[in-house]
Write a structure and sequence with these properties.
Subcellular location: Membrane
Shape: globular
Keywords: Membrane, Transmembrane, Transmembrane helix
Main location: membrane
Distance between the termini: 31 Å
Number of helices: 13
Membrane topology: Multi-pass membrane protein
CATH topology: Na+/H+ antiporter like fold
Mean pLDDT: 85
Number of domains: 1
Protein name: Bile acid:sodium symporter family protein
Radius of gyration: 18 Å
Order of helices and strands: HHHHHHHHHHHHH
CATH class: Mainly Alpha
Length: about 300
């Protein structure tokens, strides 16, 4: 996802803040349909080769998934306890931490000169196991302070994430060589960006009154959580003696979450706490921007190193 995409999402959020009535329809089933479409587009990019990666590199993928589903939830939990966060914001931050990797992380890994195959494998694996781990982690980490409908979350993730991804992969397997399908694939990313913008704008419209009171605090918390995720992923790559390309990919995969899924879960299961949805919506925008910036920094370091050798 390029910086222009992030700017487009920000523009949609600003428009929703000043004209909320334009986006109040993005809720409930409409929001779930949009997220399902985004995940369908992700599935349509998966080929048999991508699934072979999961079989050929099980150790790398396993380690990556363990780091993602350990560090990000625990960092979020530690921040909730350290800052003694209000329940709504705490739930939002925990949702961001327990969601799978973001769908744009593969592009960011490519821009960073990372290991793209590793990135695709991690995103695929974390998405496939998210119906189990996301509700389970939310139940463990926040079950004491608020009732968590783990079964309901499991069903929601199946409907808006796993089923669309599988359906997209099947479509790609059946029609990948068809010209009409290839033409459709050219415009799918643009519609996915539009869908993400609608999701963020919808939450902004619903939480417009909360942005002025809680927005800055939520932004700083999301930024800290995201930054610690990047750092944790990279350092674990160093500890595991991975090459530079894999370290970069692990950093991006761990730090960038599918906050769109978190937003849907917040709206559907924690509607009484609008701050939860606001936190996940802020993460949608911020992760897109920070991931792109980090990828560009990695690429700049490579260009700088290359120029010094000449």
């Amino acid at each position: 996802m390029s910086s222009k995409t992030a700017l487009f999402v920000i523009a949609a959020a600003v428009l929703a803040f000043f004209y909320p009535n334009l986006f109040l329809w993005v809720r409930g089933d409409a929001q779930a349909f949009i997220l399902g479409f985004i995940m369908l587009s992700m599935g349509m990019t998966l080929s048999a080769q991508d699934f072979k990666i999961l079989l050929r590199r099980p150790f790398d993928i396993f380690i990556g998934a363990c780091v993602q589903y350990t560090f990000m939830p625990l960092i979020a939990y530690a921040m909730v306890k350290f800052f003694d966060l209000p329940t709504g914001i705490a739930i939002g931050l925990l949702l961001v931490g327990t969601c799978p990797g973001g769908v744009s992380s593969n592009i960011m890994s490519y821009l960073a000169n990372g290991d793209v195959a590793f990135s695709v494998g991690m995103t695929t694996a974390s998405t496939l196991i998210s119906p189990i781990l996301t509700p389970l982690l939310m139940l463990v980490l926040s079950g004491e302070s608020i009732e968590i409908d783990a079964v309901g979350m499991f069903k929601s993730i199946l409907i808006v994430t796993l089923f669309p991804v599988i359906a997209g992969a099947v479509l790609n397997f059946l029609f990948a060589k068809k010209k009409a399908y290839m033409d459709a694939m050219q415009i799918m990313p643009a519609f996915s960006v539009l869908g993400l913008a609608f999701i963020v704008a919808g939450v902004t419209a619903l939480c417009a009154d909360k942005i002025l009171t809680s927005g800055i605090a939520i932004f700083l918390l999301v930024a800290l959580h995201n930054g610690l995720g990047y750092l944790s992923g990279y350092l674990m790559g160093v500890v595991l003696k991975m090459g530079i390309a894999r370290r970069r990919t692990l950093a991006i995969e761990v730090g960038c979450q599918n906050a769109g899924l978190g937003t849907n879960l917040a709206c559907r299961h924690f509607s009484a706490m609008p701050e939860a949805a606001l936190a996940t919506a802020v993460a949608c925008v911020y992760h897109s921007i920070s991931g792109t910036v980090l990828a560009n920094i990695f690429a700049f370091c490579d260009r700088l190193k290359s120029s010094r050798k000449k």
